[in-house]
Amino acid sequence: MTSSRRNNEIECLRAIAVLGVAVHHMQGNLFKNSLPFLDAMFKRCDFWFGVDLFFAISGFVIARGLLPELTVFNGTLRQQARIIVAFWIRRAWRLLPSAWLWLGFTLLAVLAFNDSGAFGHVRPNLMATLAGMLNVANFRFASTIFHREYGASFVYWSLSLEEQFYLLLPLLVLCLRRRIDVFMAGLVVAQFSLIRMPPLMAFRTDALAWGVLLACMTRSATYIAIEPRYLLRLGPLRLIVPALLLAVLALLAAPFTAVWHTRIGLIAVLSATLVWIASYDRGYLFPRNGASRLLAWIGARSYAIYLIHIPTFFFMREIYDRLEIPSPATWLSAIPLCTFAVGLSVLLAELNYRYIEQPLRRRGIRIAEHFLNHQLRDEPQGSSTLMQLTTDMGPDRLSSPVTQD
Fold this sequence. Notes:
The protein is built from 16 helices and no strands. It is mainly α. The C terminus is likely disordered.
């Protein structure tokens, strides 16, 4: 396993995931009218599987950092509770400021920049904003899907599911300890052949569970034994592996596979397979070149892009409406709108990453470290075990050892 804190291959997968989701969301969001060429493409392949790829990455990255702290650490229940609280502090400072900021901007646009109605009606957006802030957006999404308007912040359903995962995982580890892998395996098996009615899609945890199982495996000799070193011998041809896996994922996400009860389970398995190969960060998926560096750059900003791309799409639709520019009807006429929307999304994501995400993530790490050190001073007899843990962690160890997250 690489000692670098940033796993470039995981970041590349994040980039692919967010780009896939953004392409999936163009139809009906960026483009008011369906574009024939997108309709034809989406009938054969689709890219919403990027959400499940995100889930597999999150399950792996978070569990890879958290499991050693809670299962290896031999402290009291009170001491382990402090580790959990410190984890929650880091996650809150990492995720909530950006999420609430763009919820606020979206709601402001609904109220003040919505002549075309692109952002939807006020009341559904007020409810959607509240659901996003309280991290119950997946419950609202399940209750509104195909029935009534959700609101412009509909992407928050997946963020809420992840937040619920971050809240519950440490408690499950605390209760189950080293049997957390059995629980996650049961979660995978229970859902694999489940008939996924639309509301249940807002609660799919297959890929998250696979990510945790993969994190458990990294602590065993098996993980070293199954390292796919042979991929390096393929040279540039090893790109066939991710290309094939991603192609199968896109096919599984197409409408014609909706009748397969196992398709979400298969998407989760393939997503976890990509994360497994990327977890070694040895170039097994992506050669070290300019393209992979660009993907890693996008991946580092994927959270911001995910939050920003939908309000940006609606913003550009509003601009087009005010300028009385016809909605694109062909791929050629769609190029300018796509260019402006993508460029604005990337610009805003970079600003968010630089001035919101990174400073507040570092602040959350400092607050969590201060919390642990403060509690350490209050421990009777110095609590040498907790002191050793916080010394080993330090400010850098308080984030994931696999990748910045």
